[in-house]
Amino acid sequence: MEKLKKFIVTVTLVHFSQDLFSAPLEIVDVKRNIPLAETEPVYKDFYIKVSNSSDLKKNQVVKASRKIIVKDASMKAVGDFMTTVGLLKIVQVSDTIAVAREFKLLPRDNEAMVDQIGIMVGDEIDTTDSFTDKTQPVKTSAAKIEVPTEKTAAAVTTEDI
Q1: Which of 2, 42, 60, 84 is deepest in the core (most CB within 10 A)?
Q2: Distance (Å, rounded) from C-alpha 152 to C-alpha 60?
Q3: Which pLDDT band holds residue 159 (cuts at 50, 70, 90)?
Q4: Mean pLDDT for the stretch of residues 23-29
Q5: Rounded distance, CA 48 to CA 93, Å?
Q6: d(CA 106, CA 82)
Q7: Domains, the chain, ranges and CATH?
Q8: Cα 27 to Cα 101: distance, rounded to the nearest angstrom
Q9: SS in 3 state form for the chain?
């Protein structure tokens, strides 16, 4: 009976310690599309490693924070702190990965300066103070692209170039 109690306590501690000490949500990859026309939107997807699928929800806006390590003149680390770089909107969630897009970059007026502007791989995701964005995405209308014809091509002379 005593062994059973110890086993139950051990399993319970291991289970709770995994939740307590689980890895933070972190950006592990960034991908960007290549637009083929000026009218096509540019998307930049941030891939976030998720330890629990309930951590993030679609349309949730979360903070992307970066750890800043402060070093003295001899390059010895004297301390560190976290600063918020920007906000990301979650567009898709699976069991192990979430995809987010840039919602807003924060100006550096009231935040510490960062070496690399923008959100990048290694930045941590903070879900405190997160909210759900209920706005609908703005659809871009496809602009009419004029294809040169014999008539318009003949109108171009060497003086126009």
Answers
A1: 60
A2: 49
A3: low
A4: 88
A5: 9
A6: 14
A7: 20-135 (2.40.30)
A8: 11
A9: CHHHHHHHHHHHHHHHHHHHCCCCCEEEEEEECCCCCCCCCCCEEEEEECCCCCCCCCCEEEEEEEEEEEECCCCCEEEEEEEEEEEEEEEEECCCEEEEEEEEECCHHHCCCCCCCCCCCCCEEEEEEEEECCCCCCCCCCCCCCCCCHHHHHCCCCCCC
Structure tokens at 8: 């139950």
Instruction: Enumerate residues 6+ apart whose C-beta is below 8 A from 39.
Output: 140, 142, 143, 145
* 151: amino acid identity, one letter: K
Phi, psi of 119 (to 5 degrees): -85, 140
Beta bridge partners of 97: 49
**Burial readout 56-75 (b: 16 or more C-beta within 10 A, e: otherwise):** beeebbbbbbbeeeeeeeee
Tell me what pLDDT residue 93 has: 93
17: which 2 tokens?
């310690």
User: Which residue shows structure tokens 């005593």?
Assistant: 2
